[in-house]
Design brief:
This protein is mainly alpha-helical. The chain is elongated, with a radius of gyration of 19 Å. The protein has four helices and no strands. The mean pLDDT is about 85.
């Protein structure tokens, strides 16, 4: 049985699981209080399916330096490691 963490935590079971996995109290509370926190993410294409221009635009948005001289594979690597 899960402990009641009071009105500040909306999903006590999820909060406890996140804390057990090593998350901070703040981060665990934020995730546990998100209404759709149990649902999987979006439907974005994998990087390999995107055009070089799409990857370049994403790299620009993220702030990766040197992106204009990168190949498609280098852009993918930089985005994954950013």
């Amino acid at each position: 049985m899960t402990k009641d963490h009071g009105p500040s935590i909306k999903n006590d079971e999820k909060y406890e699981a996140l804390r057990k996995d090593g998350m901070s109290k703040t981060k665990a509370a934020r995730i546990a209080n998100t209404p759709n926190s149990g649902k999987k993410g979006g439907k974005a294409k994998v990087y390999e399916e995107r055009s070089k221009q799409e990857l370049y635009d994403k790299a620009k948005q993220v702030g990766i330096e040197g992106r204009s001289k990168m190949t498609k594979q280098e852009l993918i690597s930089a985005l994954r490691n950013s």
